[in-house]
Amino acid sequence: MKIYGPEQGVVKETKLKETKNKETAKGKDSTSKESKVKGGETVVLSERAKDIQKAKEIALNTPDVRTEKVAELKDQIEKGKYRVDSKDIAEKMLKDVVNESMT
């Protein structure tokens, strides 16, 4: 399969890396950054793509609820120590309204 256009350099670079990897890995177990796919094709991820993939994994493994914060607030409410500053709430509500109207 021939690929024309700006991606052609990526294909050439991939094949060059494959050749170099074969030469350096003769008889050795190498840890390659390339994933082999059936049919002899390879997939090379850029550093940015790897970072995005790692961030996605972290986000998926992070709980939606901060249990420590929730437990702390519940404790304060039960003890009657939780106080809300109405001025802060009103200020934040107004900021939200202004931000929404600007978008």
How would you sum up this structure, described in words?
It is a single chain. This protein has 103 residues and is mostly helical. It has a domain at 67-102. The chain is built from four helices and two strands; from the N terminus they run αββααα. The longest helix has 17 residues, at 8-24.
What characteristics describe this protein?
103 residues, mainly alpha, two-stranded antiparallel ribbon, 4 helices, 60% helix, elongated
For the biggest β-sheet, the strand order reads 1-2
Total count of strands: 2
Unreliable stretches: 29-33
Number of helices, counting only DSSP H or I runs of 4 residues or more: 4
User: Which band does the percent of strand residues land in?
Assistant: 5-15%
- Oligomeric state of shown chains: single chain
Mean pLDDT across all residues, rounded?
A: 78
Helix content: 55-70%
| Largest sheet geometry | 2 strands, antiparallel
Radius of gyration: 27 Å
Helix/strand class: mainly alpha
Structural shape? elongated
Report, as a whole number of angstroms, the end-to-end distance: 46 Å
H/E element string? Answer: HEEHHH
Question: Gist?
Answer:
Helices cover about 60% and strands about 10% of the residues. It has about 100 residues and is mainly alpha-helical.
Task: Describe how the helices and strands are arranged.
Blueprint: H1 8-24, E1 34-37, E2 41-44, H2 47-61, H3 67-79, H4 86-102
Antiparallel strand pairs: 1-2
